[in-house]
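Reopening: structure tokens for the LLP complex, inputs below.
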Amino acid sequence: MHYFRYIGNELYAEEVPVNDLIRTYGTPLYVYSYRTLERHYRAYADAFKDFPHIICYAAKANSNGAILRALGRLGSGADVVSAGELYRVLKAGIPARKIVYAGVGKTDEEITYAIKKGILMFNIESDQELFRINELAGSLSRRAPIALRINPDIDPETHPYISTGLKKNKFGIPIEDALQYYREAKRMKNIRIMGVHKHIGSQITQVRPFVDALERVLVLVDSLMAEGIDIRYLDLGGGLGIRYNEEDPPHPREFARALKKLLRKRTFTIILEPGRSIIGNAGILLTKVLYTKKGVDREFLIVDAAMNDLMRPTLYDAYHHIIPVQKRRRRKTVADVVGPICESGDFLARQREMPAVRQGEYLAVMSAGAYGFSMSSNYNSRPRPAEVLVNGKDHYLIRKRETMRDLMRGEAIPEFLRK
Ligand code: LLP
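Re-run output (same inputs, fresh job):
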């Protein structure tokens, strides 16, 4: 569910005509709906309300400071994967005690920074990382709170690039080795064991893989408890899918119901790390049709947004619904929606059946709130789009469109080239 809809023939973001936003801020433009993200956050909070839990929004999905602040105000914690994300979420006012930190390649500087800030726990992905965190915590005379990220070897039946809980993936510690790693961790002077973590993938549209993974993890938790290793937090990761096209993903309520069945009589605090299911459908990307062009065997709509702005179609062959900002009676056509970048892979949709829009009209690329701006780049020296947050009748610029100067920020010309 989201609050982008037509009123009459015009697309609205909540109570704001999208055309007004285009006039004010230009295109390409990311627009987010505050009410939508609030609704999605509350759906999770509600679904788990009778179970001790922390929702740690996955900052990688969309790390704009205003979005993070909005979620923090609603009570969210954060899942981070770099010092940069940790910095952002702390700046947004999210308390360190609600922050978990995953990632296979944490550097010494990142680990030190997180220990000093007092995060809830590190989700550790290898034995070497465990040793390193123990050493670094020792040199700071601190004990580092940790969970081990367990790879339960579950197939989440999603795109191979975004499945993470399979044996062949680089993530986590094989579940067979986990007990031994926990024993080692228990002997380490500067480590405090807090919990167990797992995350099996993203855009998962069924409850089953989550249930299977949790069952496996609970077997491990029981063995740990039997050895006197206290598990206070069970971090179930993120991954709940959203509707891009025809998918029918479970509501957080359904997801919670299935998990809670397995968690009866358990006393730990559950951590959830949703990203996409909070912000995905709360954002759209607006773009202008620069040209329409007849190719030999197809039509092209050449728009001013490109793969550098929204990489998902190119990278995963992902589907994003594309609709005109202004509805009119028009014939239907089949078109490739492509950007200005010099790559054949630069498309937002291919062979898409859609209304035949004309040069100068505007399109909305739907469900672009998650992994849209956060995966954008400056490829082809394209300044990144502006971002706007809508709340009811009001709209706010939450990131300026980049300028030409921004493109060259930090560059320097060596002395020998100056002469
Ligand atoms: N927790 C961990 C440890 C993760 O690695 C991720 C996502 C999440 C939580 C949040 O997952 P979500 O609830 O958003 O599914 N760029 C890809 C998705 C990559 C997901 C990476 N990890 C895409 O655009 O589909």
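The mean pLDDT is 96. The longest strand covers residues 283-294. Marking as resolved unless the reporter disagrees.
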